[in-house]
Automatic annotation (TrEMBL):
It is found in: Cell membrane. The chain crosses the membrane at residues 33-50, 57-79, 85-103. SUPFAM superfamilies: Multidrug resistance efflux transporter EmrE. Keywords: Cell membrane, Membrane, Transmembrane, Transmembrane helix, Transport. GO terms for biological process: xenobiotic detoxification by transmembrane export across the plasma membrane. The keyword Nucleotidyltransferase does not apply. The keyword Ribosomal protein does not apply. It is a multi-pass membrane protein. This is Guanidinium exporter. Belongs to the drug/metabolite transporter (DMT) superfamily. Small multidrug resistance (SMR) (TC 2.A.7.1) family. Gdx/SugE subfamily. GO terms for molecular function: transmembrane transporter activity. It comes from Croceicoccus marinus.
């Protein structure tokens, strides 16, 4: 169950990162409120997952999914660059997340 909670926390991390970009420095109310709500949900769910998952594992996976998710949304929805070096960097993050999960005792 902790892994599902961690995955959900990671999804909320992607949501808050994307909505923070959309808030234009917290000058737009709607995206700003989404950001604050998603941040709260993400942190609460991360804390719940950390009740049974090791700190290093939970935090690494949470940030890795958040980083790659934000990267993908930036490319798909915001027209950000998808050059080969950026893609390789994202794949390396995914590889690190997978290795962290495989190395986890849970």
């Amino acid at each position: 169950m902790a892994w599902i909670v961690l995955l959900l926390a990671s999804v909320f991390e992607v949501i808050w990162a994307f909505s923070m970009k959309q808030s234009e420095g917290f000058t737009r109310l709607g995206p700003s409120l989404v950001t604050l709500g998603a941040v709260a949900a993400s942190f609460i769910l991360l804390a719940m997952a950390m009740r049974s998952l090791p700190l290093g594992t939970a935090y690494t996976i949470w940030t890795g999914i958040g980083a790659v998710g934000a990267f993908v949304l930036g490319i798909a929805l915001l027209g950000e660059a998808a050059n080969p070096l950026r893609i390789v960097a994202a794949l390396m993050i995914v590889g690190g997340v997978v290795l962290m999960k495989l190395a986890s005792p849970q």
